[in-house]
Write a structure and sequence with these properties.
The protein is an alpha/beta fold. It folds into 3 domains: 93 residues, no CATH class; 46 residues, no CATH class; 60 residues. It contains 1 helix and 7 strands. The strands form 2 sheets. The chain has a 5-stranded parallel sheet, with no helix packed on it. The protein has a two-stranded antiparallel ribbon with strand order 6-7. The termini are far apart.
């Protein structure tokens, strides 16, 4: 692994990060089981939630918040998804509360526009207000995001082998499960043998106790009878 400055917290989070060995998968943060599971060469991605960002392979500068967010989307870049329809449950999150908005009135005009939302997919955007003449306001350009800490390749690596890698991983899991099942069977067999030996040992102890009791009874019967001697004056 050549990639650096990655953080993974959770079972199989960033499992295939930098699997290609190209060193492109830098500065990723995955928190949650299987978060950014399939990422190979993507960088600058942040995913928080179980299974978040499962389809990011080479995408960069994405932010996913919520369990399984991004499940219905393809590999993408420069995208923020917070509990939206892409989590695959059919509705996404049903309510949204964000502090710091109330009592922060900003009249529409100049660089201040109206926030819009596409109800079909929760896509946020903006539109100009009625007093802006229907034209997009002029705002300073922030420039396109740039991937940091990684060389720019001439072409993206071929990820067609990912299904085969996944198949190999599944095969390893199946073999491990078979080994565990075999060991469990051996433990059960050994436990049964120990129980049988314990039962035999208990029976032997009972038999020995009975023999000891029998011998004791025979010894008691073989003792001479007690005689009483009376001294006459």
């Amino acid at each position: 692994v050549i990639a650096a400055e990655n953080t993974a917290l959770g079972d199989v989070a960033l499992a295939f990060n930098d699997f290609s060995g190209s060193g492109l998968a830098n500065n990723n943060t995955a928190v949650g089981g299987a978060a950014l599971f399939n990422n190979v060469d993507g960088s600058e991605n942040t995913a928080v939630g179980t299974g978040a960002g499962p389809n990011v392979i080479a995408g960069f500068n994405n932010t996913y918040v919520g369990d399984f967010v991004g499940s219905l989307e393809v590999d993408e870049s420069n995208t923020i998804r917070i509990g939206d329809l892409s989590n695959g449950n059919g509705v996404g999150s049903l309510a949204c509360f964000i502090g710091g908005i109330f009592n922060n009135f900003q009249p529409v005009g100049g660089s201040v526009v109206e926030v819009t939302i596409d109800l079909s997919n929760d896509h946020l955007g903006y539109d100009v207000g009625p007093n802006q003449g229907g034209s997009v306001p002029s705002v300073p350009s922030r420039g396109a995001p740039v991937k940091r800490g990684a060389p720019q390749p001439a072409a993206r690596p071929d990820h067609s082998a990912l299904p085969q890698r996944q198949a190999k991983l599944n095969d390893k899991v199946e073999k491990l499960q078979a080994t565990v099942a075999q060991q469990q069977k051996q433990i059960e067999t050994l436990t049964a043998q120990l129980k049988e030996q314990a039962a035999q040992f208990t029976a032997q102890l009972k038999e020995q106790a009975a023999q000891i009791q029998k011998v004791s009874a025979q010894l008691e019967m073989g003792k001479p009878a007690t005689k009483v001697v009376v001294n006459k004056p």
